[in-house]
Recover the amino acids of this structure.
């Protein structure tokens, strides 16, 4: 299916092209330029989020090219953030859907500023980024933080619905990373709020804009009323356009391997003859809806898995309908209803459990690197 009609795809779905993208990483340049809108970022996040590749796989590939950890520690840290957010989700479960550490304050609404959704914030770099976001399903990481800060800390919107809006459109949607990062910006998962003024955005987005509601000293933010441009809010109920349910063919002599939105690894147990089923549970997508572009991206990526079949329905329905016995799947916080043999994901480090701060987690991880 055509994911980006009449466009050169920013995110190809062929596995060989994805692996080539890993080989093209410049981890040193990444560390020095990643904060800039045109920095040497990897564009690997959609493939990591969908489980096509792992953070461990990326790290090992860079190390095999002869780089030493001391040369690209910032790059390793950024990969580790992804594993960290997942560990928080595993430990806290549905608690990440609410203010995790602190109550966000002040909150005047549980919607999203209409100016964000309609691309009319008046901040040139932000409006350009949102327009491209709707086309590509991607935001630079720092732009995500700018938008979250504008929405929560200036627009006084509670973080959750705007985080759902972003997740809905992201090709690299990872609910743990998304929800907990929004909370981090809003002060609900951190000790202080994240703020970015116009000068800061100008520096990293290469703009020279002045006289905006962000064109103030940082000391002014604590007393700032909601800017007029952010005062109107909007709310839309998101729905996931899943494909229609169709029958799958099951060989009763073979085990069944379950894939899902967070596990599309084409190399997983590829040497074993098995029924390979991409399970799309409506209940999951009702709670965490995604856009058609994201659905199509997932389905296109799944084509890298030989013999994959798509089943739309709940896990228990699949088991009953096809009398499945030997079932295998990769662990994930959204898989708690699965029954069968659970296998671990490929983590970068053997560090598990809840850490209240990333740097507590990172301190343990760093000990496993050979400097």
């Amino acid at each position: 299916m055509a994911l980006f009609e009449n466009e050169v795809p920013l995110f190809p779905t062929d596995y060989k092209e994805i692996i080539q993208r890993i080989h093209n990483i410049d981890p040193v340049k990444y560390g020095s330029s990643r904060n800039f809108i045109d920095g040497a970022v990897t564009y690997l996040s959609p493939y990591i989020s969908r489980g096509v590749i792992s953070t461990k796989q990326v790290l090992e590939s860079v190390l095999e090219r002869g780089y030493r950890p001391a040369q690209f520690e910032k790059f390793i840290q950024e990969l580790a953030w992804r594993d960290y957010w997942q560990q928080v989700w595993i430990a806290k479960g549905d608690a990440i859907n609410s203010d995790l550490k602190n109550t966000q304050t002040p909150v005047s609404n549980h919607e999203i500023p209409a100016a964000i959704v309609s691309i009319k914030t008046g901040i040139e770099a932000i409006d350009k980024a949102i327009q491209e976001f709707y086309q590509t399903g991607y935001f630079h990481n720092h732009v995500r933080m700018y938008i979250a800060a504008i929405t929560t800390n200036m627009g006084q919107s509670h973080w959750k619905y705007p985080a759902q809006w972003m997740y809905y459109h992201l090709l690299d949607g990872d609910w743990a990373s998304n929800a907990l990062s929004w909370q981090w910006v809003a002060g609900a998962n951190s000790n202080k709020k994240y703020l970015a003024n116009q000068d800061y955005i100008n520096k990293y987005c290469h703009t020279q804009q002045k006289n905006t509601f962000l064109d103030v000293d940082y000391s002014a933010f604590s007393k700032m009323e909601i800017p007029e441009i952010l005062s109107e809010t909007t709310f839309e109920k998101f729905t996931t356009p899943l494909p229609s349910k169709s029958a799958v063919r099951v060989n009763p002599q073979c085990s069944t391997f379950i894939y899902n939105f967070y596990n599309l690894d084409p190399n997983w147990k590829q040497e074993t003859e098995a029924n390979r089923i991409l399970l799309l549970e409506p209940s999951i997508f009702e709670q965490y809806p995604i856009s058609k572009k994201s659905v199509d991206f997932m389905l296109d990526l799944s084509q890298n898995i030989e013999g994959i079949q798509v089943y739309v329905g709940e896990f228990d329905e699949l088991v009953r309908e096809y009398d499945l016995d030997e079932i295998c799947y990769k662990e994930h916080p959204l898989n708690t209803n699965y029954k069968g043999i659970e296998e671990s994901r490929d983590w970068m480090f053997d560090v598990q459990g809840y850490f209240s701060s990333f740097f507590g987690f990172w301190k343990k991880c760093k000990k496993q690197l050979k400097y």
Remarks:
- The domain at 255-339 is CATH 3.40.50.620 (Rossmann fold).
